[in-house]
Amino acid sequence: MRVLFMGDASNMHNCLATQLRRMGHDVVVASHGSRWMNTERDIDLFRPPGRLGAIRYIGRILRALPKLRGFDIVQLVNPIFLDLKPAKVRPVFDYLRRHNRAIALSALGTDYIYYAACHDGHTYRYSDYFVGSEPSPYVGSPEYLAQEQDNWKQPFMREHNDYIINRIDGAVACLWEYYVAYRPVMGPRVTYAGIPIDLESVTYRPIEHEPERVRFFIGIQRERSLIKGTDRLLAALRRVHDRFPDRCEMEIVENLPYAEYTARMARSHVLLDQLYSYTPATNALLAMAQGLVAVSGGEPEYYDLIGERDNRPIVNVDPLVEGDIDAKLEHIINNKHLLPQMSRDSRAFVERHHNVADIARRYLDFWNQILSDK
């Protein structure tokens, strides 16, 4: 099968592409390299800053167009899969429709469908935008305004979203959050696959013995700190470190390239990832594959979706409960003798539920169904 991935986020499409090539498929990744992560791609669609950068970016897209045709499947990273306004994305989408057999969408980031589900008052108990019935710290912040996330509520954004959704052949959700948002909109045209982790590229370093000091690791994305709840996680970590300075250590990194980030992470025992998430995302799963323990989202809804009843290794933090983060971190320090078993459980969990080989097969099964229905 010939597959084109248009766009990437946190290396997910490139990870799938690597596995699909191992399986004998012809795969091309056209992306901006997950921005500062600088992940691998075959066609570079990075947009340089400034007006001159915008002109160069348009030139890159135009030169790439002849290479974006003749594929069985085009998998989009988002309804806005280029760093352009919707009106300029649409002609490229129409070009892809004309010159390829089928188009699918990866539901893996903020878009209109997810935004609407966050605001409907019943899909989630908490989200990037609300904690219970109250707006999250992200809403109204300079970070929020800079990202212009409120644009998703604008009529032109909904119109663009509807245009894309009505013309794609299916969608693949990588998180429980996106699956439950898309299911009412797309019905059987959406499936859940999960986030792929390439275990062949990850060095497993299990925690062999109870450590003298627990090493906590947290990565900061400057423009996404509030939306991910990293600000609250970091504040809690600092409070706990102040209380137990000789029983724990913390490493804080910011906006590192992908390879350097994973190498730095590997030196720790516990990763702090996301707060407003029901599901572990790429960062947490990558850490777990290395043998770290993840403090992230691990709600019952996610475990129920994947059918996991016994091994639930994620340290789930609840943004609705005051002091929950501090309590969970203190529990890890006070029970650090459990870390070796938690490390093994974390790796086993990723092997069972997020191995890229299994998730690539889920994509292939879904794509083959799409193609057979055309």
Please give a structural write-up.
- With about 375 residues, the protein is an alpha/beta fold.
- The protein folds into two domains: about 1-195 and about 355-374, Rossmann fold (3-Layer(aba) Sandwich); about 200-355, Rossmann fold (3-Layer(aba) Sandwich), CATH 3.40.50.
- Helices cover about 45% and strands about 15% of the residues.
- It contains 15 helices and 14 strands.
- The chain has helices at about 10-20, 50-65, 85-100, 110-120, 140-145, 155-165, 175-185, 225-230, 230-245, 260-265, 280-290, 300-305, 325-335, 340-355, 355-374; strands at about 1-5, 25-30, 45, 75, 100-105, 130, 135, 170-175, 190, 215-220, 250-255, 270, 295, 315.
- The strands form three sheets. Strands 3-2-1-4-5-8-9 form a seven-stranded parallel beta sheet, sandwiched between helices. The chain has a five-stranded parallel beta sheet with strand order 11-10-12-13-14, sandwiched between helices.
- α3 links the parallel β4 (about 75) and β5.
- The longest helix is centred in the last third of the chain and has 18 residues, at about 355-374.
- The chain is globular, with a radius of gyration of 21 Å.
